[in-house]
Structures are given as C-alpha cells and as structure tokens.
Amino acid sequence: MSKYLFAGAFVSALLGAIVPSNAADHLIVYSALDTVDAATKAFTEKTGTQVDLVRLSTGELLGKVAAEGNNPKFDILWVEGSAVMSRLAEQGILKPEPGLADKVDYTDLGRRLVPQSQAYFPVTVSTTAIAVNTKKIGDAAPPKSWTDLEKFAGKVAAKDPNLSGPAFQWLASYFADKGVDAGKAELEKILTNKALSGIPSGGAVNKSLVTGDASLAIQQDTSIYALIAQKEPISVVYPSEGVVAIPSSAGIASVSTHEDQAKAYIQFLLTKEGETAMLQTEGGDGYFAPVINGVKGNGARVDNTATWQILDDKMASANETEWKQWFRDQFVP
Fold this sequence. Notes:
Elements: E1 11-12, E2 17-18, E3 27-31, H1 35-47, E4 51-55, H2 58-68, E5 76-80, H3 82-90, H4 108-113, E6 121-133, E7 156-158, H5 165-178, H6 180-190, H7 194-197, H8 202-210, E8 216-220, H9 221-229, E9 234-237, E10 245-252, H10 259-269, H11 272-278, E11 289-290, H12 313-318, H13 320-331
Helix pairs in contact: 1-11, 5-6
C-alpha cells in the first residue's frame, strides 16, 4: 500500500490493539487498503453507523489476525488476495453469508469471483502485470510474456509474497500456469538480483523502477496505472500467458456481534455508490478495476478483465507455507 493510515478512535499496534470505550457500538474493520477510508466515510454518512478502522500493511494485518486466532477482534476483514481469505474461511474465522450478494449487480468477473462458501465477497479487483520503464530498457524490445523477462535478468524487481497478499496470489498463479518445478526454474533465471527480487512493498518496487536499479517490475497493475498517471515513463504489459485476478475481498468474523451492520457495510461496498466513493482514493489503490456494472476505472486502465483467470484458492492456500518459504530462501536478502 502507498501509505498506512489509522482512522477513527481505534488505534492499533502490530500484534495488539487498544479498543476505545465505545467500540462495542461500532463496527471494527481491519484493512490494508487505502480505499477503506473513502468507502467507510461514505457508508457512515449514508447510514450513521460508526466504524473504527485498523490500518496496517497486508503482512502486518494478517499477522495480527493470526495472533488473534479463533477470537478475532474485527467485525470485517477486507484485504487483497482470495487465497488467504479462502484459508481463513476454511479455518472458521470468516462466517458464510449465503445470499448477501444475490442482488449485487456484479460484472461477469465479479460474479465468478464469489466463492462457493460465500464467506467473503469481491469488492474490487486488480492483477499482476509487467511494468516497463521505457527509458531504462532503451532500444530493447519490451517483454510480451513472463518468459521474456529472462532477457532482463538482474533488472527485474518483485515484491516478497511473504509480505504481500497480491504477490502471493501472483506466485500461486504462476505455478498453476507453468507447473511448480518449471515455474521455479524460470523465476530463478529472472530474479537473479536479490536487491530487487524480495522488496517488501509496492511503493518500494515503484521507487526501484523509477529511480533505482530496476528496469522492469512484476507489479500490481493498480500501481502501474498510478505511475502512468504521474507521467512517469512507464508502460504496462499484460503477459501473453494470461494474468490472474487479485480481488480485494471482505468477510465477516464468525464471532462478530454486529453481523447485521457488517452485512450492511459489505452490501454498501458492492453498490455503484460505494465503488464510486472508492475511486476518489489517491494513489495506487484507487486505480482498481471495478466489479460493479456501470462503474469505470480511473486513469488509463483498459477493461480487459473478461480474460483474467481465476485462481484455485484451495490449491494456493494448501501450498502457501511451502511456496512462501521457497521464495524467501531463493530471493529475499
């Protein structure tokens, strides 16, 4: 995320939180997304329901959720990456809410992203693509595929999937497409510079691409479009092998005592009004692909979501620990 804000009366630390005295009357939302601020403000103005936000990076937030175990302190969890939400649903942390989104005017992709469990619901979507600094690659032909990145070995930046839900979603889809062994072998030929291959955040990836040693980056397309909007010499390439959808999804804690208000919050997010409010967000998160019909994305985004693939979340979550450890061992300094 481009920044981590702490909003409302709820103040959190990495693995602990001080709950305000009136929190019993408020919804508590955990999120790693900048869009949560504008969406929550619009929801409260419309309904009068007060919401306390806990804002952390994805890695920190999921660490907090893990530490809370079967007694989560949130009413709603809203993060990117369906694989991690699938795991939390299987663990019983998130409660199935059948029928919650039946009347939502989802796009085709949005409807396909609703899991069978209905324990979490897609709110926005993005994907991972290739960001190219057109000045840095000079006369070289830009890549058209993931495999083409081998030609730029040592100059490719990437986020550490141990700290990023979207990065793990990309890694899992890479292995699903190419096969685990073949995917590992290919990445070992691409990510040959540890100073660039295990970067902790999207913002740091952008910095390395614009002013640092990276000429290209495996990056979330929301961040790429934000750089394009800032007039940086960046172009976006959607690899010919295809790309996988990375939904931001919201789910309700099984132990929530504010279930009706929580359902109303998620249903608001899944309206034109809610989605339009999120588009006011500054920075990369505001460049998402909408999942609600009739809403147009920001900036230069092209609507190519009909071709995006859907990750097998159960496969990804089953291999999460192993694949993250492999990436750490190979590519993180």
